[in-house]
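Feature request, filed as a ticket because there's no other form

It would be nice if the structure record came with a short human-readable summary line next to the tokens. Right now we just get the raw output. Example of a typical job, pasted below so the devs can see what we mean:
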Amino acid sequence: MGPITIELGKERDPVQCPCCGQMFQTVYGSIIEDGHVYAIYNAGWSFGHKAKRVSIHLEIGKWGENERPEQRLSFGINCWSVADQYQYDWIDPDLSPWGYARNKGRMLTRAEALSHPLKDDVLRLAKHLVSNDGRIRGFLDDAVY
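Raw output as currently delivered:
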């Protein structure tokens, strides 16, 4: 495993959250390792939810021109701040805004993710992402409780 960098995608305009009616912000980007796209990510949060969490979708697999979503796997993770630390938890597709997206690799259930051989690597990527995407970190750091 080599050095990791993040390529930020454009910030999308906030949309209305279906559960609370407040604004829901989504950001995305690519995680580059050894000069190649290793994963893509989506991250989102609602300004109206009592629990200040970021929902992260990490998709790992092949990214060539002829590759299809069926050749990739997705992992759902929630992240939040407690005191001066970030906490992470694996989530089921039902709890993710991207849990059943047709244009993404199948999202593993929480139980599948916890026993998957890539679990530690995915968590490493999520931690790097939260620490290095200022849009995510900015929301979480303002939300410390």
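Something like this underneath would help us a lot:
The mean pLDDT is 87.
The chain has one domain: 4-142.
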